[in-house]
Amino acid sequence: MSSAATTDSKLAGKSAPGRSIDIESRRYQMFPVLSTDEIDRLRHFGVVKKWQPGEMLFEAGKPGLGMVIVLAGRVTISWFDGFGHELPVADLGPGQFSGEVGTLSGRPAPVSARAVGAVETLLIKPELLRALIIGEAELGERIMRALILRRVALIESGSGGPVLVGDSKFADMVRLQGFLTRNGIPHTVLDPETSHDAAALIRSHELQRKELPLAVFSDGTLLKRPSEIELGRHLGLLPELDAKRIYDVIVVGAGPAGLATAVYAASEGLSVLVLDARAFGGQAGASARIENYLGFPTGISGQALAGRAFVQAQKFGAEIALPVGVERLICDGTILTVNIAGGLQVRAYTIVVASGAEYRRPQVGNLADYEGRGVHYWASPIEAKLCRSEEVALVGGGNSAGQAAVFLADFAERVHLLVRGTNLKARMSNYLVERIAGIPNISVHTETDVTALAGDDSGLSAVTWRNRKTQEEQQKSIRHLFLFAGADPNTIWLKDCGVMLDAKGFVLTGAEVSNVRGAVAAEGTNRLPLETSVPRVFAIGDVRAGSTKRVAAAVGEGAAVVAQLHTVLAAIEARN
User: Is the pTM of this model over 0.85?
Assistant: First the structure.
């Protein structure tokens, strides 16, 4: 089977909710054939390597060597599902190449490759692959497009990556699916009620219900009810961090602002490390459709926008580690230190605070009991599928809430949009207000607060809300409540560093710092526009006081801060 001519049915099969590419029409882009002249242009980026019949070029779950261009022979790409099954994905012949977006950063491959007979290849390591993509513009564009489309096809088909075993309605299953989906990791879900393999695995290991869900990897490794960090570590999402290395900049937060900084800083030659506690994209990554972002007249999903920026940052050599919990910033010297979960430290000359904000939790005593068991803080296709033909409630009056309400209305029988304000126009873009008004199964409840939640061992079962004006209470049999209300800044990790905050906890920058009475620092009180009260520490995006809470504004600040980083780094270099 030649990948230039056909693709295994596994690859062209089921589609993940909310995603779709026409694999048949784009196969020529997914599996281009390079000419002899084109390969000759790429030879100085790689080394020729020969493989014996049956030898593995790379294996799923193990650190990748880079991209291999087949010079002679054939290579078969397969996925081992961890249950003893080898599922063919594609065949590569002379002029074709291996890889997908993870190859750019040397992350473990989601699939394996084996030599069919004797094979000769040109091996291009990740750092030289990035140089190739930048240095050979036309060829680089074709290769990059193929790498991206292959990852999307793997996600859509459920080929590659771990297999999650458990009931798809379990809170922990939703949690793990959400983590993998938001980080663009291909995976498959098997329910032991309908899958013979899943049921047999549970029986053979004598597993209890409380040990589910499982994550099963190609090498047979089995993780019981893993945390996101455990899953991320096994998938190679957490690179080996060198405590001795000093980066030019560490960016905390991989939302639109942080990713913009990573792209622009790395493209200008700065060494960049990005840390995020959950997934790339931040709150914007959970938006079903953003329609007021410049250049996308038909709109784009938050995950698609963030995914492109994530790949772009890797293209320019930025290191991205997630999920990584940042615990503390230490700023008592020329070198700034970030303490991260697990007792590790990373260091940089400058820090960019792009840690964003979290949706505010209503003052309901038992809210925590239902988080992940009916209470959600984003609305992805995973949650939407659980809400099909049900009534749901959604709290919030901003654009994120409006986008989520419109998205969920396609799945739910009715969406109750609960808003604290007197109308939607105060905080929501007009196009969303008009769209919501035209959707018959969205009911808007203004001046309304959630007052009580009820449920049982299976999760949330009822939500009560009260109109503040009339004091009328209403209880509905609702199993899914979405919270998109207000925002509290993620700044607790800055408390030991003396970074000045406003009354709501957002980070002060620029003139606001310089004008604060008594704001004295070792390097004076004048600050660059995005610099905080602590020299060489900058803040951008939603976490910054006075910022415009829009994706475009966050991206703009992420780009603008790079010029200010250059100013500070030049001063440090001059002193040294």
Answer: yes
